[in-house]
Each structure stands twice: as C-alpha cells, then as structure tokens.
Amino acid sequence: QVQLEESGGGLVQAGGSLRLSCAASGRTFNTYAMAWFRQAPGKEREFVAAINWSGGSTYYADSVKGRFTISRDNAKNTVYLQMNSLKPEDTAVYYCATGRWTIATIAAQYDYWGRGTQVTVSS
C-alpha cells in the first residue's frame, strides 16, 4: 500500500512558477514510476508528466514540454513538479499517482492517488 500527499499549489500570475511536491509512504516507492496528472473543472483528468523509478527517464505531455520538469528524490520518498512560465490554462487540481513499474500516460493504469493540490494561474 502506498499513500501520497501533494503540496505546493497556490495562486500565481501568468508567467510565474510553482513547485509541487508529492510525499509518498511505503517501501515500494523506489521501485515505482511516478506521474502527475491534472483536472480542470468540467474536464477529464489529463496526463502531465511521469518519471521512472530511477529518475533516468521522463515523459511529458506536449502542452507542458519545455515548461515543466518532473524529478524525484528516492531518499526522501518525494517526487516534484517544477512548473515555469505558467499559463491560465494550467489552472487545475494537480494529482500525483503511482503503483506501476513503468511510465504510463493513462490514469486508469495507476493504482494509488493523492488528494490533489489546487493550482490557479491568473491572467
């Protein structure tokens, strides 16, 4: 069993930056891929970024490529999402997810989810 808790969300102006954190409990953290998804009001949950167990492989949605960076610190059981050049369309609740060995972009393929953290980008 893995428990996830996101933090770091907030209100920021367009062009600004935020860093999200996701703290995980459980001994299997170091063997799992980790991912970030987001969900805006009235929209489906969408993939943002993912990272493999070692941090050596990452994958991004086209909409955030070049602006967001996913990373992890296995010693701290934490995954991060550095978000730069934020746009109003990045406004959403951001969730971290895990529970699989390899990177995936489909929400249903992840077993464990946090409760989310709100990110609001004002224009």
Can you describe this structure in just a few lines?
The protein is 0% helix and 48% strand. By secondary structure, the protein is mostly beta strands.
Strand content: over 45%
Q: Tally of extended strands? A: 11
Morphology:
globular
Determine the fraction of residues in helical runs and give it as a percent range: under 10%
How is the main sheet built? 7 strands, mixed
Q: Any idea what the radius of gyration is?
A: 13 Å
The DSSP helix count reads 0
Mean pLDDT: 96
- What letter string, H or E per element, gives the SSE order? EEEEEEEEEEE
Distance between the termini: 40 Å
Structural class: mainly beta
Could you list the spans in which at least 5 consecutive residues all have pLDDT below 50?
Answer: none
What's the oligomerization state?
A: single chain
